[in-house]
């Protein structure tokens, strides 16, 4: 495992150990010393509920926040509904369900349409998913974490226990809030990768299967919690650990999908930042020893060899990776060009460089710019339609 993957794993193992100590009495149904009840829940149940809510919302932020808000609103007495958190108010979860209805219509009607016609709407949903997660991480998750902290404060530590005074002096919110946000971020990044895969997939059926799989995981979280709160929490912890393992790859995919969709939806803005002398590219496969979907720039080094330059985590000093020598060409593609080394696709350029292939070939000394096989078919189709409407006798014949 790489060092970047070990840190989240260590933190989450600490969280797992904490949960095991707090949920074990609940799972064994043991009667311990009298424990205060907060909002009609034992502290262990409140903790399990919070973990389940955070995980479920991370899987689908808009659906999760809207669903939890509506449930708590209707479960609360009418006299205290005005005092509930913002996400429990009708204007919040009502707006969320309205957006979800629009997304459902898009997916239902779009399943019968060609995939390329639905992709712009899928890309818009990609940014909606990010916006919902940003709102949830900033406003929803801290509230749930504080509720879990209040439940933990009600747990009475036996006076004779080692470290009693130190544990009693610790405010649980000091570690519960950041750990909750970390867990939310890990699960969301992996769930959001499905949105990126959807915009890259050319088949509507695959899109539906990906969304169904994510919805199935979300349903499993709820079912596990209904069976037993501690079981739901344990299942969510397993999901968090899996997400920590997949997070580095999912994060690279998320960055790629965001920039790709941004170029397609805002082409006029993307064109202003296009630099053919050092084009923005993403690796495909383990190019130069780098993992797939690593983003950076392709430049010609001092000796004329190609170099891939990138920054780890977008903040670290620039790293230069020399690329293996070889004859390269650019395939134009329908949406974005790609760099081939021989017959192997090596790098993918952002859509902003579509139409600038010849300039890149000249600057970086590539062999040529070729039409992709799909692009050739599209060009032939456009020529046929153009000639047909002009009444070309060859087409008519």
SSE layout and pairing:
Elements: H1 3-28, H2 43-59, H3 61-75, H4 90-110, H5 115-153, H6 164-169, H7 173-200, H8 204-227, H9 229-265, H10 267-272, E1 280-283, E2 295-300, E3 306-311, E4 318-322, E5 328-331, E6 338-341, E7 344-349, H11 357-364, E8 369-370, H12 373-390, H13 393-396
Parallel strand pairs: 5-8
Antiparallel strand pairs: 1-2, 1-7, 2-3, 3-4, 5-6, 6-7
Helix pairs in contact: 1-2, 1-9, 2-3, 2-5, 2-7, 2-8, 2-9, 3-4, 4-5, 5-7, 5-9, 7-8, 7-9, 8-9
Q: Biggest sheet: strands, sense, closure?
A: 8 strands, mixed
The Cα radius of gyration reads: 26 Å
Listing every helix as H and every strand as E from the N terminus to the C terminus, the arrangement reads: HHHHHHHHHHEEEEEEEHEHH
SS-derived structural category: alpha+beta
- Which band does the percent of strand residues land in? 5-15%
**How many separate domains make up the residues?**
2
Helix % is 55-70%
Number of helices: 13
**Uncertain segments:** 1-41, 392-397
State the strand order across the main sheet.
4-3-2-1-7-6-5-8
Structural commentary:
α2 (43-59) packs antiparallel against α3, α7 packs antiparallel against α8 and α8 runs antiparallel to α9 (229-265). The chain has two domains: 3-265, no CATH class; 280-381, PH-domain like. It has 397 residues and is of the alpha+beta class. Helix content is 63%, strand content 9%. It has an eight-stranded mixed beta sheet.
């Amino acid at each position: 495992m790489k060092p970047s993957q070990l840190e989240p794993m260590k933190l989450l193992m600490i969280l797992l150990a904490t949960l095991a100590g707090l949920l074990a009495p609940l799972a064994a149904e043991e009667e311990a010393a009298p424990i205060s009840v907060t909002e009609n829940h034992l502290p262990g149940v409140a903790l399990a509920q919070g973990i389940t809510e955070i995980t479920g919302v991370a899987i689908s932020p808009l659906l999760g926040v809207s669903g939890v808000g509506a449930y708590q609103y209707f479960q609360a007495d009418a006299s205290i509904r005005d005092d509930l958190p913002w996400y429990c108010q009708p204007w919040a979860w009502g707006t969320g369900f309205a957006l979800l209805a629009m997304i459902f219509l898009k997916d239902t009607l779009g399943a019968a349409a060609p995939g390329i016609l639905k992709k712009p709407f899928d890309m818009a949903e990609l940014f909606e998913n990010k916006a919902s997660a940003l709102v949830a991480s900033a406003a929803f998750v801290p509230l749930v974490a504080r509720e879990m902290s209040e439940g933990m404060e009600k747990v009475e530590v036996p006076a004779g226990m080692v470290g009693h005074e130190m544990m009693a002096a610790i405010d649980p919110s000091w570690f519960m809030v950041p750990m909750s946000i970390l867990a939310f971020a890990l699960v969301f990044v992996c769930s959001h990768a499905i949105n990126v895969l959807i915009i890259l997939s050319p088949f509507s059926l695959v899109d539906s299967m990906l969304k169904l799989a994510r919805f199935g995981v979300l349903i499993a979280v709820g079912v596990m919690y209904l069976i037993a709160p501690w079981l739901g929490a344990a299942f969510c912890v397993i999901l968090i650990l899996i997400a920590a393992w997949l997070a580095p790859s999912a994060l690279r995919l998320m960055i790629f999908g965001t920039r790709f969709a941004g170029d397609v939806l805002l082409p006029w803005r993307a064109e202003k930042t296009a630099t053919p002398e050092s084009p923005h590219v993403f690796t495909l496969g383990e190019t130069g020893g780098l993992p797939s979907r690593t983003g950076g720039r392709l430049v010609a080094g001092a000796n004329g060899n190609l170099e891939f330059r990138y920054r780890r985590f977008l903040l670290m000093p620039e790293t230069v990776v020399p690329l293996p020598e070889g004859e390269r060409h650019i395939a134009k593609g329908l949406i974005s060009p790609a760099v081939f080394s021989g017959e192997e696709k090596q790098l993918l350029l952002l859509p902003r460089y579509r139409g600038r292939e010849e300039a890149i070939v000249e600057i970086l000394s590539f062999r040529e710019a070729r039409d992709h096989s799909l692009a050739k078919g599209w060009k032939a189709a456009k020529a046929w339609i153009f000639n047909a409407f002009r009444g070309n006798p060859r087409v008519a014949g």
